[in-house]
Design brief:
single chain, alpha/beta, 5-stranded mixed sheet, binds glutamic acid, 7-stranded mixed sheet, globular
């Protein structure tokens, strides 16, 4: 029995993105011949909490926002995953993202389950005070299912280390003492880890370098286009430039710039710090997000929203490597097209696992009250990312599947083993 057999009883989280996550899972589960009992337990989240978050806005009016926190799985340890602030956040999306976190954590060997949270809001249209109130009230509403041993949030789209600091403080106020381990991706001043802010982008680049090695390409002078210039996109651009690549295009929500001779990444980052977005940045010619995806380049990094690479544009991509900095940027039906065109895809749960990996380091350092140097964080991160890449590639080759299927198969198999060992309560 699978989610798709339940059409008459489909829960409300079965939106297109959730169905895509389930379809990916079921494809991989079939290849590994997954135990049917475990199968059933993976197609639905373990628990999902919907909360109303009322806050007083700057104009004095009360507005109520919808918030979510979903635990997909907690077989191996506390559930782990980011909190997203975006106008399109909905239960189905949060459930899909939570499921991907389960496979991601398992794939890179972290003792965590998968979770995700979010608030349906436009953080760019809100003041700092409004965001602080929103974050604090949301944290208070989801408090019963949070905790260093229960569920540990982190930043995601639209949130950052300040959001995590407010979450940590709110949780700690309720407990009566400081509980830094309740979130990761927090500022270093309150127990954050060196390197966490850059971790996802760096991790993307470690996997890109491995892919290049496998394909016989050299990083020096390789041309990269990056969609999304938030935490993941900008740090990927920076790390790619450091590795010798030429970043020819970047974009954010309103479009971006392309420069055939290469963009000055540090200059673009400093522009965004000063102006809040790439709007008006003059480092190259303007282009749309759709145009960026179709640029001729060596490495394409979708690092923004999901569902960017579709059946329609997969035919028009002109890159050799797609490194998925975003979660779920490629629709299921686009995968075989990319594969048949010889485009090497580093799937999201592998490519962007660097963020949650350094979150794990942060959590471990907090538990031990012992903090590592940046060099140590990066060395351990590189080790985990390159090992995971090698395992996924070996599975893809041995089982004649694409990299996404291989990554899912490894992640699912690990959790399935743990679930079978624990059995069912009562
Ligand atoms: N939001 C990030 C992700 O999608 C990081 C999650 C975490 O660090 O817990 O992987």
């Amino acid at each position: 029995m699978t989610a798709s057999d339940h059409s008459a009883y489909r829960p409300e989280y079965c939106t297109p993105i959730y169905d895509m996550a389930v379809a990916q899972f079921e494809k991989a589960a079939a290849v590994i011949d997954l135990d049917p009992n475990v199968w059933q337990r993976f197609v639905a989240p373990k628990r999902a909490l919907m909360v109303s978050v009322p806050i007083r806005m700057e104009d004095g009016a009360i507005r109520v926002f919808s918030g979510y926190r979903v635990h997909h799985d907690n077989t191996l340890g506390p559930s782990k995953g980011g909190v997203r602030y975006h106008p399109d956040v909905n239960l189905g999306e949060v459930c899909a993202l939570a499921m991907w976190m389960t496979w991601k954590c398992a794939l890179v060997g972290l003792p965590f389950g998968g979770a995700k949270g979010g608030i349906r809001c436009d953080p760019h249209a809100m003041s700092r005070l409004e965001l602080q109130r929103l974050t604090r009230r949301y944290t208070a509403e989801i408090l019963p299912i949070l905790g260093p041993d229960i569920d540990v949030p982190a930043p995601d789209m639209g949130t950052n280390e300040q959001t995590m600091a407010w979450m940590m403080d709110t949780y700690s106020q309720f407990k009566g003492y400081a509980v830094p381990g309740v979130v990761t991706g927090k500022p270093i001043a309150i127990g954050g880890s060196q390197g966490r802010n850059e971790a996802t982008g760096r991790g993307v680049v470690y996997t890109v370098l491995e892919a290049m090695r496998h394909l016989g390409m050299r990083p020096e002078g390789a041309r990269a286009a990056i969609q999304g210039f938030g935490n993941v996109g900008s740090n990927t651009a920076k790390a790619l430039a450091e590795a010798g690549c030429t970043v020819i295009a970047i974009s954010d929500v309103n479009g971006g710039v392309v420069n055939d001779r290469g963009l000055d990444v540090a200059d673009a980052i400093s522009y965004v710090e000063r102006h809040g977005s790439l709007d008006g940045y003059s480092g190259g010619e303007a282009l749309t997000n759709t145009e960026l995806l179709e640029l001729p380049c060596d490495v394409l990094v979708p690092a923004a929203l999901s569902a960017q690479i579709t059946k329609a544009n997969a035919e028009r991509l002109r890159c050799r490597i797609v490194a998925e900095g975003a979660n779920g940027p490629t629709l299921l039906e686009a995968d075989p097209i990319l594969q048949s065109r010889g485009i090497f895809v580093i799937p999201d749960i592998l490519a962007n696992a660097g963020g949650v990996t350094v979150s794990y380091f942060e959590w471990v350092q907090g538990l031990q009250h012992l903090f590592w140097k940046e060099r140590e964080v990066y060395e351990r991160l590189r080790e985990i990312m390159t090992t995971a890449f090698a395992q996924v590639l070996a599975t893809a080759q041995a089982k004649h599947v694409d990299m996404r299927m291989a990554a899912l198969m490894i992640g699912i198999e690990k959790i399935a083993k743990a679930k079978l060992a624990r059995g069912v309560f009562p």
